[in-house]
Amino acid sequence: MDTLQVIDSRTGASYQIPITDGTIRAMDFRAIRTGPDDFGLMVYDPAFTNTASCRSAITYIDGDVGILRYRGYPIEELAEHCTFLDVAYLILTGELPSPGESGEWRNRINRHTMIHENLKKFMEGFRPDAHPMGMFVSSVAALSTFYPDARDVHSGASRQLQILRLIGKVPTIAAYAYRHNLGLPYVYPDNRLSYTENFMNMLWRTAEPRYEPDPVLARALDVLFILHADHEQNCGTNAMRAVGSAQTDPYLSLSAAAAALAGPLHGGANEEVLRMLDEIGHVKNVPAYVETVKAGKHRLMGFGHRVYKNYDPRAEIIKRTAEQVFAVTGANAKLEIALELERIALSDEYFIKRKLYPNVDFYSGIIYQAMGFDPAIFTVLFAIPRTVGWLAQWQEMIQDPEQKIARPRQIFTGPAVRHIGVESLKTAGAGI
Ligand code: ACO
Questions:
Q1: Residue numbers annotated as active site
Q2: Helix crossing, 215-227 with 84-93: angle to 10°?
Q3: With a threshold of 0.90, does the pTM exceed it?
């Protein structure tokens, strides 16, 4: 077995730490002590930049060369040959479905697309201009009150049922949030349509008896959903696993994951990209904007990634999908600004040195806007497919015998013990 030899210069003691899968166990450092009263060494890793929190068989990323695979299949092949629901099946079960399994899987999800009328009423209570992500997070959490059986997280049958319910219901909640903002009546699901077509139906159907989605746009949405379905231990997935590790039910855990996704440094970046392109306004303003980024005034939204230090393979596929969408919708005027921004940034020393490339969010917002979505709903469009990844990671965590409640340590930096005395009472509050 490979080991790491550690010599503690405080005591001169030597330790052999086992190396497995290129990793050492943080708990092995606890044995390194200066004496019996010493707690033992801890490892310090704010933001988990070099800490593996789990063993996972779902998604593989090699950020240095731009590789993304679900269960071993390259993202490029899945985006080209599969439907989103088949990819969801793959992510959750480990295998792509046979044609028979695919049909059965779709039927099982279709049985759960409706939401309780009381949840609809709950959503009606939001302000007309409520942010769709706030509505999404709260409504998913509210589902927990409709399904108390979900608390039995150790029952495989219960987990399966909640997984079907959540995958079936998140597009309905997302569409209702969208229609709520527009003041339009909610449209019930139409289960004769595919997953993404039905979502489009719930978003855009008006007075026509049957909604017929544009096949190019439906396929583009399906591809975007495939690209966003999972991405190993990102901020939202870490939230799903951390909250779920307390045996919290999957609705509440998933709402926590979606709350993490809402942040502008995470899934909220696609909305920010559009705001940034609006602020730039014209191609001629791009060089000056890039200078303000380099001066540290703000970040170039949609650029950079914690893991990808080469290109983000999803951004490449999205760029191609954009061309198909624009052939139907007409080009988004912001595309020209985005292309120029990418061109200048990719040839600038600041971005090259820091390995900053366009990420998945750089072009997705431009496509969504061309399809007719308001930027405020972009992150909800991300949360629908990511629901699949969150659930797969949650299930894997629950079944992993090594996992228990997530509870990091800290380095305490506050005052050592002190006592309340007459003198300290006299000066209390002086610092406020
Ligand atoms: N624009 C300008 N500079 C940047 C950017 C950016 N978008 N991203 C990183 N940098 C710079 C930092 O200022 C830092 O520079 P320094 O070394 O001179 O201090 C260096 O690059 C490293 O940055 P970190 O913040 O350490 O990188 P980290 O891996 O922690 O951050 C993140 C990754 C959060 C994605 C970051 O690149 C960022 O904020 N990007 C913009 C927001 C964004 O697009 N988020 C979406 C990510 S994809 C997703 O979540 C789905």
A1: 266, 305, 361
A2: 20
A3: yes
